Amino acid sequence: MTDPNLSPALKAETLVEALPYLQRYAGKTFVVKYGGHAMGDPEAQADFAEDVVLLKAVGINPVVVHGGGPQIGRMLKRLGVESRFVDGLRVTDAETAQIAEMVLAGSINKEIVSWIARAGGRAVGISGKDAGLVQAEKVGRNDPDPLQGIERKVDLGFVGEPVAVDRRIIDSLSRDGIIPVIAPIGIGADGHTYNINADTMAGAIAAALGASRFFLLTDVAGVLDKQGQLVTDLDPAAVADLRADGTITGGMIPKLETCVAAVEAGVDAAVVLDGRVPHAMLLEIFTKRGAGTLIRKQR
Ligand SMILES: Nc1ncnc2c1ncn2[C@@H]1O[C@H](COP(=O)(O)OP(=O)(O)O)[C@@H](O)[C@H]1O
Ligand SMILES: CC(=O)N[C@@H](CCC(=O)OP(=O)(O)O)C(=O)O
């Protein structure tokens, strides 16, 4: 809600400040990854939906890819299934894959569609399975074995990574004024359902669309250094350093890997943002003070 005490002049100034950005971004595609940790209270969800609908209203094509890690974790716990992660990826057996699909494509996906509808927008919720959007392939990972000092192969089960993106369904929805909302589930050439890390899924889609901006909304201010201070700008080499010295761990690893892959594939810039901050995305896009961590090919 706008502060009622804000002077009319200041309100007008904010709108005028947005003008060059509105001109620059009209017709461009923005991929927005909405993480499970960022899905906070109903007010934050309503703010997020308003931001996405506003982008569409000013001629930008937003494409939402969502996560839901914590929500899958809660469901697995209720069902008495244990969660295990390797490098931020959930080890996914056949039962876990089924539950992940239920939570992601069944529940969260439709919730986001409802929020967007409530904000006055039109959205269609799909997963990577629909219209052959994302073809997945099983992920392989190596884990260092501290006892033997060698790499050990870890089987993550039905964890997939996108190997091909068919953008046509996104293009037709966007052309028809509809906001695509995508769950990170894909299908393999082997016919299996694969659970895909939502950051990886969003990055592959951003790359396939040649997006101008790729936003990753999470539950931290951005990438933090060892002292807990916000790092405002990164390039691929700096990301590699942060990973090598252990500054980034857990879910931040696939997040930054995907940002690097996206900018190397031609996305102009990726931004890790605090999705709990009201209208974080609008402030980042339409005002001079940026927020979060910006990842570009060159700093
Ligand atoms: N250097 C770092 N800076 C910020 N967050 C970090 C860092 N290293 C690890 N993290 C963790 O990464 C998390 C974000 O990734 P993740 O949990 O996968 O979020 P999401 O569900 O939004 O994708 C943060 O909440 C934080 O705990
Ligand atoms: C393989 C893998 O780890 N898949 C993720 C998919 C959801 C996700 O990535 O959600 P967030 O963006 O909220 O973390 C998972 O099962 O948690």
From TrEMBL:
Q: Name one GO biological process term.
A: L-arginine biosynthetic process via ornithine
Gene Ontology cellular-component terms listed: cytoplasm
- Taking every annotated instance into account, which residue ranges of this chain make up the domain Aspartate/glutamate/uridylate kinase? 28-273
Annotated catalysed reactions: N-acetyl-L-glutamate + ATP = N-acetyl-L-glutamyl 5-phosphate + ADP
Residues reported in the UniProt entry to bind substrate:
68-69, 90, 195
Keyword field contains ATP-binding: yes
Query: What are the subcellular locations of this protein?
Result: Cytoplasm
- EC annotation? 2.7.2.8
Its annotated pathway reads: Amino-acid biosynthesis; L-arginine biosynthesis; N(2)-acetyl-L-ornithine from L-glutamate: step 2/4
**What keyword terms does UniProt attach to this protein?**
Amino-acid biosynthesis, Arginine biosynthesis, ATP-binding, Cytoplasm, Kinase, Nucleotide-binding, Transferase
In chain numbering, the residues marked as site (Transition state stabilizer) are: 33, 255
A Gene Ontology molecular-function term?
Answer: acetylglutamate kinase activity
Question: Which HAMAP family is this protein grouped with?
Answer: ArgB (MF_00082)
- What does this chain do? Catalyzes the ATP-dependent phosphorylation of N-acetyl-L-glutamate.
The entry's family comment says:
Belongs to the acetylglutamate kinase family. ArgB subfamily.
Report the protein name in the record.
Acetylglutamate kinase
What is the protein's species of origin? Sphingomonas endophytica
